[in-house]
Design goal:
The protein is α+β, with helices and mostly antiparallel strands. It contains 5 helices and 18 strands. It is globular.
Length: 327
């Protein structure tokens, strides 16, 4: 029965891919799916109950957390980021089980990295599996819109074999589970988090630009919450409860049209990929497929990192309940 339920949620997740992603899934209120994590009054639930403001000031950041643990599913929120000078500010929408598995945690990350005035926000995606924090799989991108002007949807599809990150209805990254990755692919139940916090030490040009609280409070707005997956009993971590879905044939993956859009996005907007980082890795991790044209294009963003040369050193910092690697 458990396996059948899991298959149903995987089927439904892929049906979502073919029919407009989160538009076909129920949007829940904040109190239906989430709880206050930290930040006291810096988390504000709006009167409609379906929108939340997270703020960062000199006193504290803020965050919220899903009430349930999930094993696979589709997770989404509309987010509007703070405007003006945002250097050192990080807004995160991510899954983690660091509280449950302190030494071998998993993680799936959307991180939004603020910038100085006149420079655009950047998005960073990353995964960890089984505590593999020494093998960062970060990618970093620009966007084709200003994320401070209005809400945009950011989504994570997590199945037994794939992780796909979406911006609006555009897939921007697909991670396939490979045998060579071993336990590095996230495979244990996770909770979903959203936070805003001060990452002055690393977030903008390696810590060159800090948070300037003259521009505080920094407010990140969240709405259109989708939590659609298999919930897990927090005690035994094995009992699954999945939402039923029609018995529809599972597509083999991203459609040709979706893949073309993803490849176009990556060609235009990707600014960093761990696969080409010659400082961090003497040889690319096993799942990387090296594209010489892509390598040459990324070299223009950072010739030291992508072309060899004098090394700079990353640091690890705490992001509320989860860690992030600086590059």
């Amino acid at each position: 029965m458990k396996n059948m339920h899991l298959e149903l949620v995987l089927i439904w997740s892929f049906v979502v891919l073919c029919h407009g992603l989160s538009r076909n899934l129920p949007i829940i209120s904040f109190d239906e799916g989430y709880s206050h994590l930290f930040g006291d009054g810096n988390l504000m639930v709006l009167k409609d109950g379906k929108s939340v403001h997270l703020s960062l000031d000199e006193r504290t950041g803020s965050g919220f957390v899903s009430q349930d643990l999930y094993l696979h599913g589709f997770f989404s929120a509309s987010i509007k980021l703070p405007a003006d000078y945002t250097a050192g500010v990080v807004v995160a929408f991510y899954m983690s089980n660091g509280d449950t598995f302190e030494k071998n945690h998993d993680e799936i990350d959307f991180e939004f990295l603020g910038n100085i005035r006149g420079k655009e926000w950047r998005i960073q995606t990353n995964i960890y599996g089984n505590g593999s924090t020494k093998v960062g799989r970060e990618e970093r991108y620009g966007l084709w819109f200003d994320p401070t002007d209005e809400y945009h949807q950011y989504s994570i599809l997590w199945t037994k074999t794939h992780i796909i990150f979406y911006v609006d209805d555009v897939a921007i990254r697909e991670i396939k589970r490979t045998e060579s990755m071993g336990g590095d692919f996230p495979s244990k139940p996770m909770t979903l988090y959203a936070t805003i916090w001060d990452a002055s030490e690393w977030a903008t040009n390696g810590g060159k630009y800090k948070v300037n609280y003259k521009y505080a409070p920094y407010i990140a707005e969240f709405s259109n919450f989708v939590l659609h997956g298999c919930t897990v009993d927090p005690v035994d971590l094995t009992s699954l409860k999945c939402e039923d879905a029609p018995n529809t044939k599972i597509p083999t993956g991203i459609t040709a049209s979706q893949r073309a859009k993803m490849e176009s996005f990556r060609k235009k907007h990707m600014q960093y990929s761990f696969c080409y980082d010659k400082i961090r890795y003497k040889a690319p991790p096993s799942e990387c497929v090296i594209n010489p044209k892509e390598a040459e294009r990324l070299k223009k963003f950072d010739p030291v990192t992508f072309g060899g040369g004098r090394a700079h050193h990353g640091k690890r910092h705490r992001r509320g309940q989860a860690a992030v690697a600086a590059i």
